[in-house]
Design brief:
- This is ABC-type transporter ATP-binding protein EcsA.
- By secondary structure, the chain is α/β, with parallel strands linked by helices.
- The chain has a single domain, classed as P-loop containing nucleotide triphosphate hydrolases (Rossmann fold).
- The chain contains nine helices and eleven strands.
- The strands form two sheets. The chain has a seven-stranded mixed β-sheet with strand order 6-7-8-3-9-10-11, with helices on both faces. A four-stranded antiparallel β-sheet has the order 2-1-4-5, with helices on one face.
- A hairpin with a 2-residue loop joins strand 4 and strand 5.
- Helix 3 runs parallel beside helix 5.
- The chain starts with a strand and ends with a strand.
């Protein structure tokens, strides 16, 4: 559903991503982790069609991202870490707008369910510029979920969320994956990644350090016969103890 083949992205003389290849199948949840500047946001923005690849190929549902921009957007939801909403529109108007653009069937029912799940029902008539940081994040997720995309890209989605919001978001990720969506989540919260993701893609300075099942990644750093935590494995991988590009 989501695929990168020898993906490179450079900004003038700065290489953000170099030779990245991976595939996310329906039902999988990929955690995208790495230090600041590792290329995580660049990768998600390129997959969503917001920035072009310098070299290589990116695909969503078998379609080339650059050659089929409209079809890609119909299949993909991208929620950035600082979503840009329409400040003068209310919560309900945002949902109506997305329902119209994506021609969502039974939009009223789906809107109600999403706003209820993310505790935004009471804010339906409130403008976006009056919402808290966490509520804006929730609204962006609701807008992204409304048209049932098959590829979901979440960049630091926990920013500003309270504990109930985090719990609801993680449960929604599990449910969307169970329904067949392919999901990528970028986050520095390794405990969260470990709790919800089936696979992990570890980036360091634009290069893949590991790509594969999260349990396999942890098992490579056993201590006294027990797999390491994701945090332990992450620090070992990014400190050079795991060869670049390892994949299982």
């Amino acid at each position: 559903m989501i695929r990168a083949i020898d993906f490179h992205k450079a900004y003038e003389s700065t290489v953000a991503v170099a030779g990245l290849s991976f595939a996310v199948l329906p039902g999988q949840v990929f955690g995208l982790v790495g230090p600041n500047g590792a290329g995580k946001t660049t990768t998600l923005r390129a997959l969503s069609g917001l920035v072009p690849a310098t070299r290589g190929r990116l695909e969503i549902a078998g379609l080339d991202v650059e050659q089929h921009p409209i079809a890609i957007k119909q299949q993909t939801a991208y929620v950035p870490d600082d979503p840009q909403l329409f400040d003068d529109l209310t919560v309900g108007q945002h949902m109506d707008f997305f329902a119209s653009v994506y021609r969502v069937a039974d939009a009223e029912t789906k809107t109600h369910q999403l706003l209820q799940t993310f505790d935004l029902i009471e804010k339906v008539d409130q403008r976006a510029n009056a919402l808290s940081r966490g509520m804006r994040q929730k609204l962006a997720v609701c807008c992204g979920y409304l048209y049932s995309p098959q590829a979901i890209l979440l960049d630091e989605p926990m920013t500003g969320l309270d504990p109930p919001g985090i719990r609801n978001l993680l449960e929604s990720v599990r449910q969307r994956a169970a329904d067949g969506a392919a999901i990528m989540i970028s986050s520095h919260l390794l405990a969260m990644i470990e709790s919800v993701c089936t696979h992990v893609l570890v980036l360091d300075r634009g290069r893949s350090k590991f790509c594969g099942p999260i349990d396999t990644f942890k098992s490579q750093f056993e201590s006294a016969g027990a797999p390491a935590s994701l945090e332990q494995a992450f620090f070992a991988a990014t400190s050079g103890e795991l060869s670049a590009g390892a994949s299982l």
